[in-house]
Amino acid sequence: MILKSKTAVVTGSTSGIGLAIARALAAEGANVLINGFGKPEDIEKERAAIESEYGVKCIHSPADMTKPDEIAAMIALAESTFGSVDVLMNNAGIQFVSPIEEFPIEKWDQIIAINLSSAFHCMRAAIPGMKKRGWGRIISTASAHSLVASPFKSAYVAAKHGIAGLTKTAALELATHGVTVNCISPGYVWTPLVENQIPDTMKARGLTRDQVINDVLLDSQPTKQFVTVDEVAAIVVFLCGDAAKQITGANLSVDGGWTAE
Ligand code: NAD
User: Fold this and answer.
1) Is 221 inside a domain boundary?
2) Calpha distance 254→251 (Å, rounded)
């Protein structure tokens, strides 16, 4: 167990990739702060399951990743409850699919806030403690869309390219402090985020559900398979280990060959 007596904060971890990462970090012995929205009874079930399955402490923060003051309070809550934030996983993210000229302004602002600015606010709050202790791991869930674009995803692509740049900057600033900063760029992972964008993509491109899955989503992925949440979580665990201490400022693709094309 590589994270015994350490603390991990995972944003957007009541579902999908974030939940798998929170579980994987708990399996390595970390106390975990999970964050995100959902039915209170579902969140409580996940929180309690993490504690009982892995023998760690787990708390939930409902902090809204569009609100800088709630983000700062979330990091402070993890520090006051567990004593530190050693692993910061910026994962919360949403998607919206529309041509630029019809893209609702409030959706653009929301995606930039959740998918990009929240990572800055989390880092800003967590870095002082990491520097003081001389150890930290900051990892963000970017996307294949941090490297390449798709039409109708302007805000998402802009935010994810931003995450890749923020990762490099933070890595340089923290290089001599024992803190590594990396991002992971999955291709299509089968989660509610992907499932929920199918109707809008059907509308935007005039396609059926099967056509969106096979001709749009899996068309990008040479392996013709979705990435799994556990495959993403395994990389996070690797990045937390000692063997990964010289990996910093990297953008690691897990995309079935998508960005090799
Ligand atoms: P998901 O919809 O299953 O989970 C998103 C999580 O973010 C949920 O816990 C949700 O409650 C939380 N969230 C949403 N808005 C929030 C807010 N304002 N404040 C706090 N939490 C909020 O999605 P997912 O597919 O697991 O995506 C997670 C991350 O992975 C995102 O950053 C996404 O862009 C990225 N990603 C996903 C895929 C994919 O194919 N699913 C591919 C590449 C990257």
Assistant:
1) no
2) 10
Residue 146 has pLDDT above 90, yes or no: yes
- Domain assignment present for 27: yes
**CB within 8 A of 123, min separation 6: which ones?**
88, 90, 138, 166, 170
What would the pLDDT profile of 83-123 be if each residue is shown by its tens digit? 999 999 999 999 999 999 999 999 999 999 999 999 999 99
- Annotated catalytic, 54? no
Q: Per-residue pLDDT averaged across 187-195, rounded? A: 90
Cα-to-centroid distance, 176 and ligand 1 (Å): 31
135 is in which domain, residue-wise? Answer: 7-188+228-260
Q: How many domains does the chain have?
A: 1
* Distance from C-alpha of 148 to C-alpha of 161, rounded to nearest angstrom: 9
Query: What pLDDT was estimated at residue 192?
Result: 86
* Assigned domain for 80 exists: yes
Could you say which of 156, 188, 226, 258 is catalytic?
Answer: 156
Question: Where would I find the H helices in 175-219?
Answer: 192-205, 209-211
Determine whether the shortest distance from the Cβ of 201 to ligand 1 is under 6 A.
no
- In angstroms, the CA 5 to CA 242 distance is 16
Helix (H/G/I), strand (E/B), else coil: 240? helix
The CATH number given to whatever domain includes residue 116 is: 3.40.50.720
15: tokens are 């579902």
Residue 203 in any domain: the answer is no
